[in-house]
């Protein structure tokens, strides 16, 4: 396969950044297709740790062209600061991506005071709202200083917020001028790359359960992290995508508000949080911890057409005396195997669990699947059978080399 997507199948924080980095050595282009700097991908390489919020996680590979796609919303300050450690990276930005301006953060914080969605207050939602309302600014506005100033001041006035667009542009003018040659039509760029036989990876932010259409609405993000959203967000025919790698944490986590059926409320949650450092990369908020939820995962696999899986943080499962997995929900006395569409119904479901034996060994140094403890292999097999997708990778630690490959997705087939 030459064109694959990497998508989180839970509520984000599954380890997409690490897996993108692992697979990037075989990619020519990596395209971030949605979201903004509310994302947080941690990549560890040698003695370095990079926390990326807007750049694709493959940016540390000098040969890779990193692209910020049309479906993104871009905070210029974050982009300029994040580029600094990677002076040799090739970074392209879509002329159709929308700009997060400083007042979008103000609007976000004000809305969160009453809505309580649990956003990062980075201005993501208000920027996407301006996009849908057909009044936002695209990156293309930066190509003409006077045009940008006029449009940005008009948008601020529409929101009844004081904003000096001229001062903002001039504060970043040096970086903006340097960016201008790298602003591209991503759809056209991809078309040429595909016809030239280049390998392309599409990287999303958040996870499918935060998808605006398919997630736990309204406690979702403002874009579509699912694979089904990629074609429209990058400007590519859907049949050109050849495969999708779904990233699944060996347990579940969630940041912010919203129902979380398998949430753990015992000391075990604290143990896992501390061992796995389950705190948001962007905000530092502690993540809520839960058992693996097969109902939400089956939903995510279906809506994203997942062909292969990567299981991450398997080493953390050794904290559990027993491995519990939610195999069904009970709602109002009925057994169901789907995610209810209404948030009230989802908040009332009772998880029904299977229990599997745990393992207490330290597996963080294991490099071969055959050397994993039998209970660990049994757990992996259980997930694979339940989700009807091949497990291609198992991660037993945060570093590149702590990845066990069962199948190379670039060389795999869809069948």
Descriptive account of the structure:
It is a single chain. This protein is an alpha/beta fold and 415 residues long. The protein has helices at 16-24, 76-83, 102-115, 124-132, 145-158, 165-171, 173-179, 186-195, 230-234, 267-275, 294-304, 343-348, 374-387, and strands at residues 3-8, 29-32, 41-45, 48-52, 65-68, 73-75, 90-94, 98-100, 183-184, 200-207, 243-249, 252-254, 288-290, 292-293, 308-312, 322-331, 334-336, 350-357, 390-395, 403-405. The protein has a ten-stranded mixed sheet, with helices on both faces. Strands 14, 16, 17 and 18 form a four-stranded mixed sheet that branches. A two-stranded antiparallel ribbon has the order 3-4. A hairpin with a 2-residue loop joins strand 16 and strand 17 (334-336).
Percent of sequence in beta strands: 15-25%
From the spread of the alpha carbons, the general shape counts as: globular
Our count of domains comes out at 2
Q: Return residue spans where pLDDT drops below 50 for at least 5 consecutive residues.
A: none
Annotated CATH homologous superfamily of the largest domain: Adenylosuccinate Synthetase, subunit A, domain 3
User: What is the CATH domain class of the largest domain?
Assistant: Alpha Beta
Report how far apart the termini are. Answer: 11 Å
